[in-house]
């Protein structure tokens, strides 16, 4: 089937109420972008955003999406979320048939940028809640060109509508009709994600940062005291101007009995007060996302880190199972419908490749242990696994062949 006919099979996009002013192959190009707000968010903003997102008659996620963008400016939050998602993104996978045999050609079809983005968006839905993906645009070879996310402010999950503008009451149906096969919703209609539960803690942490900055601005720079016996306004104005320029000039010139003194900075445990609060907030965030804080604590012990990794690994594995189910149940059918190049997926399934990968260092350690136990590893195997060419044995090396009985055993 030619590329032209394949595209003609897709539905012509219409405006919600009238013919579209411009022709396009996908709805995301028809959306009116929302202005990005960089204003600080408060607990009151959080309450309003949640209330609007869960409104029964006409839910609006625009304020919630803006709030989440603001929360992700926190480096610790962004880092621990990346830790969850990157684990799956760097995990090996394969496409298998009903018997569990890998089809390497189909596996190779998923080694694309759109698939990396697909993993990120599917797993990020656990944090931002209901997510809508567009799988529509193909390249000249018939492969999916990109995975596009419909902004949360531009769809109404309760009504199943993609909205041209945030807050609109009508739009394009994506759960049924002609667009059903090109859009996939991840998560339930009213799912707000983990960030909704973390928002009060993150906002409190931001307030702590702001209080620390105010403290530094007020007490971080030593005060300057000027004592003079002059009472005329002209001299007082000169001293005032000199004091204002003191930071940049680093010196003052006085007259008569005038004195200039630099006060001491505020001392005490004020720094610890702010620092401990922020560390506590980071620990709570890590526990919610990774199951503990040992993996993000630079002073943690080895034993604690190992226990923490096992807790985090449960979440990593749950993420992988979640993505596998989403792909096989929702993504795979849409790829098959999208282009003939994905037709072989009809009888194949996505699976994570959990087979153990031997590293060169691991093989070398294994060889040493076997040699110490009296065994002689196969030189060809060692060369193949480590890439080290073995020229032979040392002159003082003694190789004791195993008795026939032990070999059979």
The structure class reads: mainly alpha
- Give the biggest sheet: 3 strands, antiparallel
Task: State the distance separating the first and last CA atoms.
Answer: 61 Å
Q: Counting H and I runs of at least 4 residues, what is the number of helices?
A: 14
Share of helix, binned: 40-55%
> What is the overall silhouette?
flat
Radius of gyration: 32 Å
* Strands, total number: 10
Question: Mean of residue pLDDT?
Answer: 82
Please give the order of strands in the largest beta sheet: 3-2-7
Descriptive notes:
The chain contains 14 helices and ten strands. The longest helix is centred in the C-terminal third of the chain and has 37 residues. It has 409 residues and is mainly α. The strands form four sheets. Strands 3-2-7 form a three-stranded antiparallel sheet, with helices on one face. The protein has a three-stranded antiparallel sheet with strand order 4-5-6, with no helix packed on it. Strands 1-10 form a two-stranded antiparallel sheet. It is flat and about 95 Å long. Helices cover 46% and strands 8% of the residues.
């Amino acid at each position: 089937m030619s590329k032209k006919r394949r595209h003609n099979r897709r539905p012509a996009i219409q405006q919600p109420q009238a013919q579209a002013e411009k022709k396009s192959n996908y709805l995301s190009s028809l959306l009116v972008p929302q202005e990005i707000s960089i204003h600080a968010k408060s607990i009151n903003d959080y309450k309003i955003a949640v209330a609007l997102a869960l409104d029964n008659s006409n839910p609006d996620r625009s304020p919630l999406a803006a709030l989440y963008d603001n929360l992700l400016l926190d480096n610790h939050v962004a880092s621990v979320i990346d830790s969850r998602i990157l684990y799956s993104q760097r995990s090996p996978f394969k496409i298998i048939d009903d018997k569990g045999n890998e089809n390497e050609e189909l596996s190779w079809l998923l080694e694309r940028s759109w698939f990396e983005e697909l993993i990120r968006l599917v797993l990020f839905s656990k944090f931002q809640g209901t997510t809508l993906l567009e799988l529509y645009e193909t390249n000249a070879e018939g492969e999916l060109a990109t995975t596009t996310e419909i902004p949360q402010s531009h769809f109404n999950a309760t009504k199943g509508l993609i909205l041209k503008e945030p807050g609109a009451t009508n739009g394009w149906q994506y759960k049924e009709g002609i667009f059903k096969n090109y859009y996939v919703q991840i998560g339930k209609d009213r799912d707000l994600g983990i960030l909704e539960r973390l928002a009060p803690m993150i906002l409190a942490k931001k307030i702590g940062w702001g209080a620390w900055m105010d403290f530094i601005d007020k007490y971080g720079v030593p005060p300057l005291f000027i004592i003079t016996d002059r009472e005329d306004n002209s001299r007082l104005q000169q001293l005032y101007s000199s004091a204002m320029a003191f930071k940049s000039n680093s010196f003052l010139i006085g007259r008569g009995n005038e004195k200039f003194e630099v006060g001491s900075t505020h001392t005490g445990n004020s720094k610890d007060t702010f620092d401990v609060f922020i560390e506590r907030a980071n620990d709570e965030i890590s526990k919610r996302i990774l199951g503990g804080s040992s993996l993000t604590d630079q002073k943690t012990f080895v034993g604690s880190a190992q226990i923490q990794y096992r807790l985090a690994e449960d979440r990593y594995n749950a993420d992988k199972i979640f993505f596998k189910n989403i792909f096989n149940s929702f993504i795979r059918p849409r790829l098959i419908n999208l282009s003939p190049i994905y037709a072989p997926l009809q009888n194949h399934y996505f699976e994570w490749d959990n087979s153990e990968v031997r590293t060169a260092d691991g093989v070398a350690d294994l060889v040493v242990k076997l040699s110490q136990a009296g065994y002689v590893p196969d030189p060809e195997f060692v060369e193949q696994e480590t890439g080290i060419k073995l020229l032979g044995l040392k002159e003082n090396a003694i190789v004791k062949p195993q008795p026939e009985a032990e070999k059979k055993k």
